[in-house]
Amino acid sequence: MRLSNSLIIGTAAIICTALISFTISDTVQQVQQQQRTVVVKGLAEREVAADTAIWPLPIVHAANDPTEIYRNLANDMAAIKAFLRENGFSDAEMTVSAPAVFDKAAARYSDYDERKDFRYSGQQTLTVYTEKVEMVRTVRQQLSQLGQQGVALGGSEYEHAVEYHFNGLNSIKPSMIEESAANARAVALRFAEHSDSQLGKIARAQQGQFSISDRDSNTPHLKIVRVVSTVAYQLVD
Known about the structure:
By secondary structure, this protein is an alpha+beta fold.
């Protein structure tokens, strides 16, 4: 009887050990299978036209009488507004900053010389904020008309350059994300083919940040929108 019990216990132990070994082996194989992944990146890129323009038009005057500066600024500003209205811009698209007049003689570290320098300088800026991007590009070529009226625009080209923006990102986001994911999958399929494997499920995925940049320095009104998706796929035999 004791021998029979020992035999039963021994047999059960052997079976349990075999089952545990099989389970561990199967688990290890599954883990190894899951660890076989390929990480790929998919790029989506679009060229789009800017839909908003911010156009600053600064004016600067100098004189020894501050009232003369205020008067000249007001006259120039009226001429600029008239010019813009004639070319299709509305008052709602124009914003005028307050005039700023600077007294050089009152400045603490000024090198003002009353024998050769104007004591006062003043500046004011009219900014056009509009969705009429092509109109801005066209009208900018006609600024000489203001010069013929005696209006001299101040500031450097860099400081007062037109800013072009694209605000329609949300309308193209879904299709670009889909495109970047499809491009990533195409790369993964080629990798799997070359490694004699099959492409499995997605292990993990990460969508990159959207970026918007000028297409080139000569056409800032044209933008390049980019996004890169990073996807990890499982590889199966």
